[in-house]
């Protein structure tokens, strides 16, 4: 398979993506790999090679944390498909454990909202940021970052090249835009599934994976949320659903916790901080933002691309294997069959009664969603 495997090699990602960083005009990135649409680029943040290189350096810079030990790549490591697999929940400054599993940043550019509960609108991220979250990078404010980027000679040159700005004129807007630009290059498709489904290569996927695709589309009803379009597949409907993960942990306390949360919000608590540091608040999911009861315990549908190499799974990292995930769905939205089903479960979730063969095939299908760049991380043949 592909020898541009990321494991071990620390080549800058920008070198792996010559076609993507060639941009036509403002608005849309040029080429996208098989199975994916072009990436939308905001008009006020056009992509250039200089900005991608700057964004990548910022992404890897540990000095932007209160301890000097944590960078974005600590939790979104290139050699782990931009996750911190196999950690269940992320560990930030001072070894503080957060409440949530770090999602891959691969193809995150396609999401309409960021984070498991969608509390951020885009990659440029106007208001909340890991840099200043106490359990992530732990800075009190952005001053230390500005100090570094305005004085470090390498940054000074890079900001000049990327934004045409002199040191004193560099603000967090340029820093965030450069990081977002780098994130928009993390576009990976061309999996065995893409080569089979969109590329017409009959041999690209095993027979088991092909049967698994049928389960995904039909008996499993997976594609109603993990969507596949005619010309591309994001494997996410960009919406929020309660599929029965985590919410049971607070079900007994909901009557007490819900008014408490609403009151705290009315008083102006920092929701970003609350959901990453408080285990109960974390489980409210989309509700913590929307305050709509049908959003209780609802989280964003993640893409399934490269899922075979990013265990463990779900917003809380509570399911260790793809088999555990499929069994959770097969049980109708409970991990342990004897658990009570959540009252707020999304409509599409009910017992599936899949056969043992169907379960195996469905897993094999998900293993065929691995992009060649990450295939070396896979432990099963179908993911390579
Ligand atoms: C301590 C670990 C940690 C660090 C450091 C960290 N992240 Fe994250 N990141 C996470 C976790 C955990 C989530 C999920 C949080 C949630 O959904 O509530 C996340 C989510 C994201 C998302 C949303 C992806 C999606 O699919 O919705 C983006 C984008 C992101 N991080 C970018 C960054 C950038 C850029 C940096 C550096 C400035 C960074 N992260 C630093 C752990 C981390
Ligand atoms: C009603 C919408 C819906 C349906 C139907 C659905 N999913 Fe999901 N899926 C989600 C949501 C939402 C999450 C995240 C839930 C969470 O973290 O609490 C998720 C998470 C996952 C994950 C974990 C991914 C990760 O990166 O952590 C896998 C794997 C998965 N689903 C596979 C499947 C399969 C296989 C099926 C069919 C049997 C299926 N899904 C059906 C909405 C759905």
Helices, strands, pairings?
Elements lengths: L12 H4 L6 E2 L3 E2 L19 H11 L12 H4 L67 H9 L1 H11 L8 H12 L8 H6 L9 H11 L22 E2 L12 H13 L4 H7 L1 H4 L4 H4 L8 E2 L21 H9 L25 H12 L17
Antiparallel strand pairs: 1-2, 3-4
Helix pairs in contact: 2-5, 2-6, 4-5, 8-14, 13-14
The structure holds heme C (2 copies).
Explain the overall architecture.
- Helices cover 30% and strands 2% of the residues.
- The chain starts with 12 loop residues before the first helix and ends in a 17-residue tail after the last helix.
- It has 384 residues and is an all-alpha fold.
- It folds into two domains: 180 residues, Cytochrome c-like domain (Cytochrome Bc1 Complex, Chain D, domain 2, Orthogonal Bundle); 196 residues, Cytochrome Bc1 Complex, Chain D, domain 2 (Orthogonal Bundle), CATH 1.10.760.10.
- The N terminus is likely disordered.
- The chain has a two-stranded antiparallel sheet.
- The longest helix has 13 residues.
- One heme C (HEC) binds next to helix 13.
- The site of one heme C has 27 residues, from helix 13.
